[in-house]
Amino acid sequence: MVEPSWVFALNANELKENTLKLVEINDKHVLLIKKEGQLYALSNRCKHMGCPLSAGTLEDYVLRCSCHGWRYDIKNGEYLGSRDIALKVYGSKIEDSKVFVYI
Ligand code: FES
Question: Which residue has its alpha carbon closest to ligand 1 atom 3?
Answer without folding.
Answer: 68
